[in-house]
Amino acid sequence: MGFLGFLLLGLICGAIAKAILPGKQGGGWIATLILGVIGAFLGGWIGGALFGADMNEFFSLSSWLWAIIGSLIVLVIWGFITGRRKA
After folding, report:
1. What's the mean pLDDT in 79-83?
2. Residue 4: CB atoms within 10 Å
3. Predicted structure pTM score
């Protein structure tokens, strides 16, 4: 998968993760892109390391599922980090 395809996958999966997780998450589309790309990396690493998933195809269902799962994990971690700063 090319670099632009990976960014597009990260952006879409980050938006899906924000829609799935309840509550109010801050950040605009740039934060969503960063969240999604980090989540896609994390999901690809988890899927490849634990289950041998192939993350080379943009239209592969496993690529999308692992990228969404990784984005959800990153979003939960980000919520814990930013949620503790309420003063």
Report:
1. 79
2. 9
3. 0.81
